[in-house]
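Lecture notes, unit on binding sites. The following record was shown on slide 14. It pairs a sequence with S-adenosylmethionine.
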Amino acid sequence: MEAPGYGVRVPREEAELTRRALIQQKVLSKRLKPRIEGEYVLFPVESPLFGAEEFFFDMIETIPSLPRHDLIGGIAVMAEPDTAGAELLLAQRRSIHTVLFAESEVEGEFRTRRWSLLAGEDTRKTVCMEHGQKFLIDLEKAFFSSRLVTERQRVLQMVENGETVLDMFAGVGPFAIVLAKRAGKVIASELNPSAVTLIEQNIKLNKISNVLPFLADARHLDLILEKGFDRIVMNLPHGATCFLPFAFRLIKSGGTIHWYAVVSKEGMLIPVLEKFPVKKIREHRVRSYAPGRWHVVYDIVVV
Ligand code: SAM
């Protein structure tokens, strides 16, 4: 769209010097675009400077700033229940089909939230892409967080080819499926039947054959599975402490347990590990969880 405005006309060879001078004097227009006219460049200015004339200029398209949100595939999760902001998100981002607001914290054994629809299609299902892999998600039925994408890649870098891995709290399978890129076999164990169905679908979606979905309570895994895992992932940050004995019974000597927790101080949970056969512990901050609290992982190498 065009709009009238004052501008200065300078020969092309003087354009760059003029542009810098106008910026320095804080008079270059932020609303209108400079344009070329034959051998001259027309710079729109904020006020009728000496020598300025009236011209028509193209307007600079301003993109309204978008409200704070997290993206999970085609679902935007907004920090506030702001329906006008939700409509703006839908209009500005073609990849978003649904805008939700979390009515609750992550809750219950299955670690899901209650959602309300702010805009778009009334669904809690979407497909999320992470480093070339796809995850079918249903936020109503099973946990998923796209904030762990970097953490999954960090753990993947630690996996040696052919490892046997156990994901004790697998959700819809993102850790299991990412680690399957290098591992020989991954057991993706989960208590929530809907999540296990999604793991099965995600295995098909990613055309992989080395992930075995397992519907089980992590408390029973040492009765069903043989000891000897190279690596165990324990991503149940608010409750995995009581599952540590089961992980230590299943890990092989020299293997690694990734134990996730929420802490308010570095090293806070290291005393919990004193009664276990630990060779080495490394604490790594995954992300900020809340003011003064961090989602951390203890990478534990077992004796
Ligand atoms: N690892 C997944 C991820 O990163 O998306 C899911 C993590 S989520 C925080 C924890 C998962 O543990 C949930 O899917 C929940 O259903 C599952 N869970 C909770 N208690 C469990 C138990 N006793 N045995 C097995 N899985 C359990």
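Take-home: Residues 278 and 302 are 5 Å apart (CA to CA).
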